[in-house]
Automatic annotation (TrEMBL):
This is Antichymotrypsin-1. Residues 1-17 form the signal peptide. Residues 44-401 form the Serpin domain. Belongs to the serpin family. Pfam families: Serpin. The keyword Signal applies. InterPro entries: Serpin_CS (IPR023795), Serpin_dom (IPR023796), Serpin_fam (IPR000215), Serpin_sf (IPR036186), Serpin_sf_1 (IPR042178), Serpin_sf_2 (IPR042185). SUPFAM superfamilies: Serpins. It comes from the Eukaryota. It comes from Bicyclus anynana (Squinting bush brown butterfly).
Amino acid sequence: MATRILILLVAMAAVQSYPQYFDDLVFPQYTRTALGDSVDVASMKLLKETYKSATEKNVVTSPLGIQTLLALYASGAEGKNREEIVKSLGASEYGLLKNNYIDMSDRFSSMDRKFLTLCNKVLVSDKYSLQDQFLKTARSFHSEVDNINFEDTKAAADAINEWASRNTDGKISNPVSESDIDPASAVALLNVIYFQGHWHVPFNASETKDKEFHVDKSTTVVKPMMHLEQSLHYRDSPELGAWLVELPYKESKFRMIIVLPKDVDGLQAVVEKAAENGLLQDVFQMYPAGAEVILDLPKFEIRSKLNLNELLPKVGVSRIFEESAAGIIKEQGVAVSRGLQEAFIKVDEEGATAGAFTGLVAVPMSSNSRPPPPIHFKADHPFLFAILHDDVVLFTGTYSH
């Protein structure tokens, strides 16, 4: 059996939302795919375990960043090691999985970096060289490839942190410390996803007021709550026991979904139900409400650091930490020694002023009819959120207080 050399798996993700105003909005036609479904279910399973293990119930993660690195790692694994990754990512076989992630890397890497940055990097020790096939796969994932001296642990950590900071506009600047770097490391696989979305729906900063937020049935705090009255995509889901509303971004096919449990203490149950079947079944049943949605949503900012050594085994991926993968470097097998993710999200109406926004939805009415009563969507207790592009979950998390 090959001597086990170590590998570092690091994913970083950041998202910010900014105001933007337009005269009108045409709802895009979203497409549901097998890849979107597999990403959805895998993402919600990871969110469930993240939520359960977190002492701080405000959490955010980009499962897609982790999934991308696992798909890349699987190209150098074999046997049950690879099969475990493929199964966890909801694919039937690795060839299909790899092609799906190559296509997705092509799509996201070609987008304007002013709003979306998705990039991968492979750092290989200057003592080793990558297997030709793994290098080819890494390139097809739009990965940068560089050599590094892991024995200089401070310099290695500094190089990773500089790359993360540069690709997230400084929002994630120190995802790894010197202690995270094992001098015996052979390879580090890195991923960054950074989204800067501009609201297509205007929040007026002057309407943000301090209002009560119910942490649970017995605890109430005061939070700055943004306010909006518009006709939005909406769903009342008996399956999830929650209401859903969609906040579209200016950037085509990007949207935030807020999933508000009907019960003040219902977030854990909603997270568990989402982990069983994903969110897309409900998301693709959302339709224009046909009435104004009166939305109250707290401003929030969340930063999470996830230990993937603890989380991944809970979603069925453990062999990468235990078994040697022979197809990554030429000299000998490697196993993952350390996996981590730092994620950040900021949602507010920063700098927003009242602006023109007309006709999200036109509701046919006769001269004698009255407008339908408004729908109140008051996110005044813990909820789940997700940011999607088309049917692919980019970020997800929970806000609890």
